[in-house]
Write a structure and sequence with these properties.
3 helices; OB fold (Dihydrolipoamide Acetyltransferase, E2P); alpha+beta; elongated; 165 residues; five-stranded antiparallel beta sheet; 2 domains
Length: 165
């Protein structure tokens, strides 16, 4: 029984770690470091809050099913009843685990409509980060490895830099 409990806890921990993956624009993936990124200048036309639906990798359903089956089977003293209860509890646990995974991986995000200097428009959905965007903000679109993120453009001074003699 202790071995089954250890396996169940390991699966639950794996599911928890998978749910902690971030899509925040403030977190850069290791594989995207030291890569040349394409940068485009633009202006924010509009920003609206959206919700990115949670993922369903199957880990939540697996963990829920295993925990439910073990609990259902162990809860009955009769062999045949225990098997039936184990199956029913496993199905219920899988459904609950799937729903928990989906809800725990939902994210609040922004849909940002940007007009590029060329006149083209782009709509980007990204997780909420530390920056707050408003219509009229100068922004840059950074594309790295096929993924795009929006960040505020750095302020550029119109005064020339002093030259040391």
């Amino acid at each position: 029984m202790l071995k089954i409990l250890n396996v169940t806890l390991s699966l639950a921990l794996a599911g928890l770690l998978a749910a902690c993956a971030s899509s925040s624009p403030d977190v850069i993936q290791r594989g995207d470091t030291q890569r040349l990124a394409q940068v485009q200048d633009g202006v924010v036309l509009s920003v609206r809050p959206v919700v990115v639906d949670g993922s369903q990798t199957g880990i939540g359903a697996t963990v829920g099913g295993v925990v439910g089956a073990i609990g259902g089977y162990a809860g009955s003293g009769v062999q045949r009843e225990g098997q039936v209860l184990g199956v029913l509890a496993g199905v219920a646990g899988a459904a609950a685990g799937n729903a928990i995974e989906r809800m725990s991986t939902r994210e609040e995000a922004l849909e940002i409509l940007v007009q590029l200097k060329s006149g083209d428009r782009r709509a980007i959905v990204q997780a909420k980060g530390s920056e707050v965007f408003a219509a009229g903000d100068a922004v840059i679109l950074i594309t790295t490895g096929g993924k795009i993120r929006v960040t505020k453009a750095p302020k550029i001074s119109s005064d020339p830099a002093p030259v040391n003699p």
